[in-house]
Amino acid sequence: MSNLFTDPSGLSRYGWTETLDHAFTEHRESGLVPARIVRVDRGLCDAVTEAGPVRAGLTALYSPDPLLAPCTGDWAALRPGDAPELVALLPRHSAIVRSSASRTSHGQVLAANIDTVVVTVAMTAPLDAARLERLLAIAWDSGARPLIVLTKADLATDAFELEALAPGVDILATSAATGQNIDVLTALLSGTTVLLGSSGAGKSSLGNALLGDELLATGQVRAHDGKGRHTTVRRELVPLPGGGVLIDTPGLRGISLYDATDGLEQVFAEIERLAQDCRFGDCGHDTEPGCAVQAALQAGELTERRLASYRKLQRENVWAAARTDARLRGERTNRQKAITSHLRATYKFREQQS
């Protein structure tokens, strides 16, 4: 790990700001030091402090809710010593969240405190429009700025037209092999950047091009479908030569939404605008009279695929929110039952003593 941190002169190159410094005052008065999590690995983590890299424990931060678990990109308060331990997380200003891979009602944080989400799309594989829309919904909902980067432009045989799928998102074609537009991409990035995409989309190769060194593992992809193996096995934060940091992530196979209402509104902005002109406020955009969405469909201004994707993701998002509400109601009920049981035991004990 030491080769990633050759300049441990301070935390500013990792994103430390005056705002964070002010928020850390109380922790500092308790003898704690600020640290940023580089990677999490089985109850321990690699973090970077003003003094350099450190391996720290996470026992004090255990939570049964994955949303509250420490992850790559988090800023934390570290208790130094012979057995360093992270004891508190600072509030996140942004986070990429998806439904837990375990298919529970919990969310899972993929990266925290990010400023730009680079969604990678390989130009050598067939475009999966629905998957791109799903990734963009998660990216927009994180609170960071999404950016679509087309990779492997030197090997592409067909042009990609993505503007209709990604309103308000900049799109840049690149090639890690030839260096095409890598300088342009570097100029667009600031703060903390995270790479998202499928296995084989060229995330790690793109990351290495930005880093100017082969620090991230890369692998081959299958010729017939453009898919690759997981060469990145865990999320990892690496400083960029020109400032800022980069978070590489494993290729995402399952991408389930977790309360991504704001993100969906951004991804399907044209449908949201059309819906405002519908005659009825609760229009289902199906057979209702005066439906502006259906009118746009009939006029060829909106495609059936786009509307079907919108409906599917909206249903999924509502379902995820309902599961979360049910879990929270169950947790409140269990807590209330525990309190009631404790009170009954207390009263019974008092009666026995009197």
Number of strands: 13
Rounded to an integer, what's the Rg over CA atoms? Answer: 24 Å
The biggest sheet, with number of strands, parallel, antiparallel or mixed sense and barrel status, is:
6 strands, mixed
Please work out how many helical segments DSSP would assign. 9
Major sheet: arrangement of strands: 10-9-8-11-13-12
Average pLDDT level: 84
- The percentage helix is 25-40%
- Predict the CATH topology of the domain at 95-248: Rossmann fold
Intertermini distance: 65 Å
Sequence of secondary-structure elements: HHEEEEEEEEHEEHEHEEHHHH
Ranges where pLDDT stays below 50 over 5 or more residues in a row are: 1-9, 221-232, 325-332
**Beta-strand share of residues:** 15-25%
Task: Assign the structural class, choosing from mainly alpha, mainly beta, alpha/beta, alpha+beta, or little secondary structure.
Answer: alpha/beta
* CATH class membership of the domain at 95-248: Alpha Beta
Bulk shape: globular
Assigned CATH architecture of the domain at 95-248: 3-Layer(aba) Sandwich
